[in-house]
Amino acid sequence: MERNAEFEVCGGSKKAAMKHTISILVENNAGVLSRISGLFARRGYNIHSLAVGVTDDEKISRITIVAEGSDYTLEQIGKQLNKLIDVIKVRSLPAGGHLARELMLVKINCAPAQRPELISLAEISGAKISDISNETMTLELSADEAGITTFEELMKPYGIKETVRTGVVALQKGNGSLGS
Question: S-S: 140 plus which of 91, 119, 130, 135, CB 3.0-4.6 Å?
């Protein structure tokens, strides 16, 4: 795959700190994630979300990072990422111009009498029942950050025993793609 040393930040001001979604194609080699996360750490930038997975080509992985900073900071990160040997392409996904989802599994207390109510809430929210026992129910939801947070708030009154969320995965809307 051809390397792309360009990096474009879409919109915003140089001083305002906001969350940015960065999509990175990398060669699927040992240590790549460590080098990328190390770049953020050395510069004191916090990663809010991180997701990594192979693409349709097993030699290439896609990393999605959500980080906070100004557009200037984002531009500097992009330039530094492009200097890493294993990085193929870096793109900041424009706000509103991409689809972003994360997955949450949440295990809640669930007495048999509460099951119909929780099943109804799951259906309305688009959650899937992944496991059920005499005392608990585990629900699975894929949604944007706001949807996940809202669902978690709805589950709190029942007693959350355990929860886990993945990092954000994102794709640009429309015809554009990181691979092109």
Answer: 130
Q: Read off the pTM.
A: 0.82
The domain boundary residue, chosen from 95, 116, 133: 95
Measured in whole angstroms, how far is the alpha carbon of residue 176 from the centre of its chain?
Answer: 19
**pLDDT beyond 50 at 115:** yes
22 shares its domain with 88: yes
Q: Which amino acid is at 60?
A: I
Determine the residue type at 172: Q
- 3-state secondary structure (DSSP) of residue 58: coil
